[in-house]
Amino acid sequence: MKAINKICQILALVSGVAALALFFLTDFATIRTAAESVTLSGAQLAFGGSAKYGKVAIEMAKSAHIWFCIIVTILGAVFSALTFKFKSMRFAAPAAALVSAVYMLVITLGNEWKFVDYRPIKDYSAVLSINYSVFVAVITAVLFVFAAFGIAHLLIDDKLAVAGTKKLTLPRKVIAFLRDYKSEVKKITWPNFKFVVKNTLVVLVICAIIGAFIWVLDWGLAEILKLLLGA
What we know:
The protein has 231 residues and is α+β, with helices and mostly antiparallel strands. The chain has two domains: 2-186, Butyryl-CoA Dehydrogenase, subunit A, domain 3 (Up-down Bundle), CATH 1.20.140; 189-231. It is built from eight helices and five strands. It has helices at 2-25, 42-47, 64-82, 89-109, 112-115, 134-162, 170-186, 193-230, and strands at residues 27-33, 37-41, 49-53, 56-60, 127-132. It has a three-stranded antiparallel beta sheet. Strand 3 (49-53) and strand 4 form a beta hairpin. It is flat, with a radius of gyration of 28 Å.
């Protein structure tokens, strides 16, 4: 079990680094116009930088969506590396990986025109199409693998930590919490319709009185200020 746990920990880190490498080293999207086309990596879309448009170098705008995915992936990889030293990072690493994976899935399945900023291209109004490369799906898959290995490491490490003790593992803690929550919900006494209407009317009346008082006070102070300024 310890060997499997260590393998999951290593593979989580490798998957995170691999996802980052794919962002920086592979084509992410291709923008086509009637005259030229430009192919951009995820890093170029996220952080800007020069891109070749025909014979002209253009400065690309930054895509906040892809920037967010890369930054969260970087954090996930850093957290995953820190799990070798600090056990508290077991929760942060898979959480960051899962957030990045889900967001990348939205980008992958979404409309390319919403996530790729093509405005720096000359005559951008003549852009004909924007197409993702196959590496966008690959990055998404690798991020989900990253999250899966991170979660596996978290669960196995948690099980090893409570082995031989009376403590509950993380899944059992969640189940126990949900059971306690269900039992507490059953104890709630819900008010009847008449009680709700009565209390709602009381709140509305009090709000109206307070509002009227503030309005009168504001009007009175404004009139006094006018008199003082007029004098």
